[in-house]
Amino acid sequence: MKDLYIIAGPTATGKSAAAVRLAKKINGEVISADSMQVYRGMDIGTAKITEEETEGVPHHLIDILDPTEEFNINIFQKLCKKAITEIKERGRVPIICGGTGFYIQSVLYDIEFTEEETDLSYRRELEEIYREKGGEVLFEMLREADPASCEAIHPNNIKRVIRALEYHKETGGQISSHNEEQRKKKPAYDAAFYVLYDERKLMYERIDRRVDKMIEAGLVDEVRKLREYVPRNAVSMQGLGYKEIYAYLEGECTLDEAVYILKRDTRHFAKRQITWFKREKDTRWIKPGECPWDAENWK
Known about the structure:
Number of domains: 2
Largest sheet: 6 strands, parallel
Oligomer: single chain
Helix content: 40-55%
CATH architecture of the largest domain: 3-Layer(aba) Sandwich
Number of helices: 12
Shape: globular
């Protein structure tokens, strides 16, 4: 038995269901490694696991914040490590499940983050560029300064884009190189790291079906309710599904256009997730229907 189990991989590969099955096999509890499922009221667009789907398995770091609150990797790392400790104290096994690779890495390797803010004027300058010209311009700036980071950072994650640009200005280096150095550290846990994947064509088909089901389940109404009290520039509204539908509700595009963009950007996101996890050490890649713990004699 390992100290920690990790079930990761691109979106729409069945990670949540696989984690529940593993937890029931090893007396485990699941810790969500998702940057959006922490928010209450954001259920459909995040494909949040339902109470029925948990099958009684305790889940952590889900529905712990209001969408107006900020959530970042530092907060995740602190809460995740606390959850791991408490789960072990109960004599159970922690299972981290999610597709946010940087979050998982931060815990597995106990990454140290620098939070120096030596040039707030530059941050304000970048924020002004975002307000006036949009996130695409900032992302292109990052592509010039640190191309490798563009593989790991979603263009909509403006906070991380800005932080990477700040790091480049402060140090003259690339935050992706800093992260690679951190990745070379020995894992802080004796972990089993599984990555769920499938053929790209099948994965993309599942993503398209998932988006269609989200629309049918009421994603537009979910975003409409959030729009009443959550500002558009909130961290929570930068998530896939929320940004696109928010734009539709603002009259900037049709619903069909918003759905098209959402499917396209989700496919691009899944591709970046695969790239990220391919760089991880000591991972075992498995297809959704071939989880080893589903075998009767697995221990």
